[in-house]
Amino acid sequence: MAAYRATSSRGTRVRTLFVPDHAARIDKLDEIRRLDESGVLIPRVAKTLPAAEAPTAHRRFEAGGVRGRLVLTF
């Protein structure tokens, strides 16, 4: 996985990864889970929507201005 790098004076750190690149790497996916559970990795979720509202989520994302991820629940 990529190393952390500071991106602002606030100490924000970015760690770039592409999950599909590691889909078969259980150790890497487990590391992501541990970072999330420990509070190191803080995903920004803009809104959680039911899967039936996937078209709405796509339209919102494509329109721009969404800060965070739109999460679909199944």
Would you give an account of this structure?
- This protein is 30% helix and 20% strand.
- With 74 residues, it is of the alpha+beta class.
- The strands form two sheets. Strands 1-2 form a two-stranded antiparallel ribbon. A two-stranded parallel ribbon has the order 3-4.
- The longest helix has 12 residues, at 26-37.
- The two termini are 29 Å apart.
Helical content stands at 25-40%
Q: Helix and strand string, N-terminal first?
A: EEHEHE
Our count of helices gives 2
What's the shape? Answer: globular
Uncertain segments: none
**What order do the strands of the largest sheet run in, or round the barrel if closed?**
1-2
Assign the structural class, choosing from mainly alpha, mainly beta, alpha/beta, alpha+beta, or little secondary structure: alpha+beta
- Tally of structural domains: 2
Computed Rg: 15 Å
Tell me how many strands there are.
4
Biggest β-sheet strands, sense, barrel: 2 strands, antiparallel
Please report the distance between the alpha carbons of the first and last residues.
29 Å
Layout of helices and strands:
Blueprint: E1 5-6, E2 13-14, H1 26-37, E3 45-50, H2 54-63, E4 69-73
Parallel strand pairs: 3-4
Antiparallel strand pairs: 1-2
